[in-house]
Every structure is written in C-alpha cells, then in structure tokens.
Amino acid sequence: MPPAPAPDPRWPRAADWLDRGDDDPQLLVLGLPTSTASISPSEAWRTPAALREVLRRFSTYDGERDLDLEGLRVRDLGDLDLATLAPVDALRAIERAVADLDPGPVAVFLGGDNVVTAPIVAAHRAAPIERTGVVTFDAHHDVRDYDSGAPRARGAGSDAPRARGDVPSNGAPIRWLLDHGLPGDQVVQIGIHGHANSRAYRRLCDEVGIRVITVDEVERRGIETVVTEALDDLAARTDAVHVDLDIDVLDRAFAPGCPGARPGGLTPRQLTAGAHRCAAHPAVRTVDLVEVDPTADVADITVMNLAATFLAVATGIATRPR
Asked: Which long-range contacts (CB under 8 A, 24 or more apart) does 143-149 make?
C-alpha cells in the first residue's frame, strides 16, 4: 500500500477523523478480526488494520453531498483480540463486547469474516433477535448447514479448529440467527448473485420468508428504491435494523480480495449508494462490513472499495437529525 500524501491542513484525512476519540459519539467503531470460521482460506482478520491504513488516502469531505465528516462525532474502540481464537470462543467474545456497548450511537463493526453478523444481532441491546430486522448486501444467502465445516485460516495457526456443531461458518450466520429466533420474514437480502448459491438453500430462504432481491432486480428497479422499501417495511415491524455489508456482493472486478466474489455483482456506486441510504435511516442501529482478505487483494482495489463503503455509512449517519 503506497504511503499517504504529505499532511495538508486544508485536506483533512479520514484516518485522522476516525482516530479523534470524540466524547458523546454518534458513531462507534469496533474491529472484529476473525477468520477461523471461514469456509475458504482467508486472512480477513487483517482487514480492520488495512481499512484504517487506507483511510489515510481518503478525505473527510463528500463532494457529491457537500458534507464533511469533521462534524460527525466518532470513537474508534480498536479491535478485539480474536484472530487466533476458535470460532466458538470468538463468537462468545464478540457477544460480550457487543452487549457492553452503549446502544445510543450507531455501531459499525469491521470484520473479519461474515460469521460476526450472528453475535452482533444476538447481543446488541437495541433490540432482541425476535424484534430485529436484518438487511444483507451479499452474493450469498448465508444459510448453509453448520456441519459443512470451515478450513483453518492461514493466519490463525495450525491448531485452529474448524467450525462445527452449533457454531456457524461464515456461510451460515443467517441460518444461525433463524435457528435462534430471528423470523425469516424480517430478513431482506440484496444483491444475490447467479451461480453463487444452491437451489436447496434458496428454497430454504423461500420457505422461511426471506425476501431475496437479486442483482437483476437491483438493476431493473434501482438500488435506492429497493433499499428504501426494505428499510421502511422492516422499520414498521421491528424495533431495530442491522445491516450486513458483505463486500463480496461486488462484481469480482471490483473485489479481487473477496474469496466469495463472482462476476456479475453490484458496482461500487450501487453498494455505496445502498450503504448510505441504510445508514441515513433512523431504524438502522448496527452495521457490519465483512469478507475482505487484504492479502488476496490486487492494487488495494478491494480495501479501497471497503473504505468507500465505510465512509458512505458514516456520511449516511451524519445526515440524521441531531
């Protein structure tokens, strides 16, 4: 990753904004560096640090919306120590940390692999599972059986165990939430790819009432339309909404550092527009960004798209009434 340009007091950096540690924050950030539950070998645990580093190359100013993040109070809580933990221990540690968070600010979690979605929704005090809505931006349904197992992450040590039993892999966080009380009709999945899922798992989604919005529907109806409809519907039926931003929803050309990305996904413009619209909605209380392996990236393309998506979330929060 190339170094950031020389400091310029008239060009504030997003990394410096994130590092401020403001009192009474509107946005809390917590890193969840996990990858021991990944189905495909991954070093996604390295991603929170990579994201913070690449933010040195971004400004705090959103020129399209004439909005500067300098006015958004933020506190970065750093990372949990998860990288070498067995999946069951990592999930328990995440649940404890999330349960301890102040439920007032919007909380954004930096993964790590997608398994983190399960403990976030289960533990955050904004609402119990039964009263939470979930919007996923994802190529996949994430409803796999638990016993499919997960290879050990490359960076996690040779004795890191596989995900088994009641512990989901990164391909099963939505399945785990369904099994632990999340009603299926309170899940909306946006950006599902062709040839990235099985018929059996799609039928499972249909049976439990998950609303599936494919890339084709996004292109026909527009990202802002489908996102607004989903949020307004969930807000009317739940007490809080969690948004899962799996970066492998992007077309593979824009996400070479996502093991699960395939050709034919969303564009960065669609993902950042959807992320911004979600974060601006008052029903959204928690957000995660997951499934990037910076060691597999090419020319920082994926990490840069991750950073752009994170900043779109931040600008969405900044538009909320204070």
From this structure: 143/172, 143/174, 143/175, 143/178, 143/201, 143/204, 143/205, 144/39, 144/168, 144/169, 144/171, 144/172, 144/175, 144/201, 145/172, 145/175, 146/172, 146/175, 146/176, 148/39, 148/172
